Amino acid sequence: MSSPIEDYALISDLETAAMVGRDGSIDWLCLPRFDSPACLAALLGTRANGFWRVAPRGRARCTRRAYRPDTLVLETEWRSGSDAVRVMDFMPPRAQLPCLVRVVECLSGSAHMRSELRLRFHQGRVVPWVRDAASGTVAVAGPDAVWLHADGPVVPPDQRDPTVLDFTVPAGQRLALTLVWSPSHLAEEPAPLSVPAETALKGTSDFWRRWTAQCRYEGPWRDAVVRSLITLKALTYAPTGGIVAAPTTSLPGCIGGERNWDYRFCWLRDSTLTLSCLLRSGYRDEATAWLDWLIRAIAGDPADLQAVYGVGGQRLLHETEAPWLPGYERSRPVRFGNLAEHQVQMDVYGEVLDTLCLSLRAGIPMPGRVWGLVEALMGHLLRHWREPDQGLWQVRGPGRQFVHSKVMTWVAADRALRMGEALGRNGSCHQWRALRDEVHREVCRQGWDARQGSFVQSYGSAALDASALLIPRLGFLPARDERVRGTVRAVRRLNHGGFVRRYAPAGRGVHDVDGIRGPEGTFVACTLWYADALAAIGRPGPAREVFERALAVRNDVGLLAEQWDPDAGRQLGNAPQAFSHIALVETAFALSSAPSPSRRSPGASGRR
Predict the structure, then answer these.
(1) Per-residue confidence at 283, pLDDT binned at 50, 70, 90?
(2) Residue 464's pLDDT is what?
(3) Which side of the chain, N or C, has fewer Cβ within a 10 Å radius?
């Protein structure tokens, strides 16, 4: 039986990440990058697909787990009688080779521990050759070699299997286990760490605390905001500045269903919110690195603009299935790669131009060729904006005239005009202004359902879509506009258990819009957009209630998945999800600046 998604914590070295369960088992690890094949994949299968557990021998249960304050160093404790032990898991920010360190500290009594490592390379499939080496154990398969080192006495209970180690740590003492990856063709054995484990622990803690100290947010939800920002930083591929949507693949939106996608890539739909989140939080360097990644990734013909790219900006993300993996709680298929690379998503043009405009306003230096990019993107939109697409949600059904995509076309024209004014470049402004006005009229005519008093998902449809909540934030209409208020009221029909779905489900059959069978959970980001919209239309009290409800479904170490199942009371989808944590930070800023209900004028009604 798989552990609940919310049982997992994240550690990262800013190039890849590991998922650590409450039982002390690392069940997901890709080396050397986020998008590399997994060498520990029990998360999507069984222990036979790879794991590394460090825990007390016997049936001890975790009694406490937390990150060290303002860091990504995870501490897990077990207590039984007079015996107490703490395991500190971390990945030092990468200097050379990827390294994962597990420091075992006995707090009282004696810690009788076991380390059990089962490496399975190439997505949990290939059993490596394992042999003893001068400083520990090495496992080799194909291009990969992993070295395991202990800095104290350990004993394999079975001499034929050096990957299972027993050891005892006396009270007040520590023992460190270090796992290092290297290319298998390198002849020399890598040093387990360039510094002692204790030094690496202090250095890693200090790195994160220095980084966290830059945070500008000082509102009532600082702990949640800081943890979300640390998570966002942990999902950053430092060499390029790209930020992955999640470190995992194929954690399901429906247990036992087929809504299982690979999120170890970078989505343009997240770009503006990511940049805004980083800038307002005080992380200008990260915002600049993200912008640089974006500009490099989209270089080329605007007709070839993708919705998703790899961490290095690569375009080929061929989607395959892994039939040898049974899937998380039998949720199949397990997918690697993402078909969204081939989809037409017209909203991404607006996302890119909104990001460039925000960068310009923030004073981030941009290369001179950016204006040529703006003109090229707008030229493509002028020719193609009327075409149907797969939309924000990357539906796998037929293309439609999605309202959000049209709103983002308006955003593209609006931001291009603003940038032209700021830069003194207005050669095409009459065309762009005409496009902006035409799209606005069309959306207000064809995207509006007078019977429901709401904007809808696509032209000619009565279906609601949570993306309509973004209309006031994007500036398409002011929050005081009655059409915005009507849409916010209507979106309540997407409410399930106090959380918001992205659109209405289709039961167990194939959804007529997204083309996928089965239901899904509510979306954390959509729920937070609803809180934003409530605050924008002057209802800060209900907005705070929605926000606090979303905060309550973080796991014990403050992490959010993509979705929440109110019926089962559990997280769903890939985790931790950058989109969810970005939305959390943005909403915290919005609500911190919104007037408190207690400060409202006398006689103001609680409902509008």
Answers:
(1) very high
(2) 97
(3) N
Instruction: Dig out the tokens for 452 from the structure.
Output: 């429901």
Helix (H, G, I), strand (E, B) or coil at 304: helix
Residue 242, number of CB atoms within 10 A of its CB? 26
pLDDT band at 59 (very low <50, low <70, confident <90, very high): confident
Our CA dihedral for 513, 519, 524, 525, rounded to 10 degrees, sits at -10
pLDDT tens by residue, 1-15:
689 999 999 999 999
Distance of alpha carbon 531 from alpha carbon 540, whole angstroms: 8
Q: Strand 62-67 and strand 74-80: pairing?
A: antiparallel
Residues 138/145, Cβ–Cβ less than 8 Å: yes
- Spatial distance between the Cα atoms of 209 and 232, rounded to a whole number of angstroms: 15
pLDDT for 517 = 81
Check if the beta carbon of residue 147 is closer than 8 Å to that of residue 136: yes
User: Quick check: 38 pLDDT over 90?
Assistant: yes
In 3-state terms, what secondary structure has residue 109? Answer: coil
Cα 136 from Cα 165, distance rounded (Å) = 11
Using CA atoms, how far apart are residues 97 and 477, in angstroms rounded to an integer? 50
What is the Cα–Cα distance from 408 to 347, expressed in whole angstroms?
5
pLDDT in tens, 209-222: 999 999 999 999 99
Do 166 and 134 meet the contact criterion of CB atoms below 8 Å apart? Answer: no
Tokens of 186: 């390198």
| The one-letter amino acid at 333 | P
pLDDT digits (tens, 9 = 90+) for 215-251: 999 999 999 999 999 999 999 999 999 999 999 999 9
Amino acid 160: pLDDT = 83
422 residue type, one letter: A
Can you give the pLDDT at residue 563? 98
Weakest mean pLDDT among 178-192, 378-392, 462-476, 580-594:
178-192
CB count within 10 Å of CB 515 equals 12
Q: What span, in angstroms and rounded, lies between the C-alpha atoms of 79 and 82?
A: 7
Contact 35, 46 (CB under 8 A): no
Length of the chain: 608
Q: Helix 222-234 and helix 271-281: axis angle, to 10°? A: 120
What tokens appear for 158 in the block? 């079975």
Instruction: Give the per-residue pLDDT at 341.
Output: 76
Coil, strand, or helix at residue 588?
A: helix
Spatial CB neighbours of 602, under 8 Å, sequence gap ≥ 6: none
Among the listed residues 34, 202, 227, 19, the one whose alpha carbon sits nearest the alpha carbon of residue 103: 202
- If you ran DSSP here, which 8-state letter would residue 596 be given? P
Q: Kindly state the average pLDDT of the residues 180-190.
A: 82
The token pair at 136 is 């520990």
For residues 352 and 294, is the Cβ–Cβ distance under 8 A? Answer: yes
- The residues with which 67 forms a beta bridge, in sequence order, are 74
Q: Are 204 and 139 in contact (CB under 8 A)?
A: no
| Residue 216 exposed, middle or buried by CB count within 10 Å (0-12, 13-18, 19+) | exposed
- pLDDT for residue 507: 63
Scan for tokens 């990058």, then name that residue. Answer: 33
Q: For 68, which DSSP code?
A: P
In the predicted structure, residue 80 carries a pLDDT above the cut 80 = yes
Name residue 276's amino acid. Answer: S
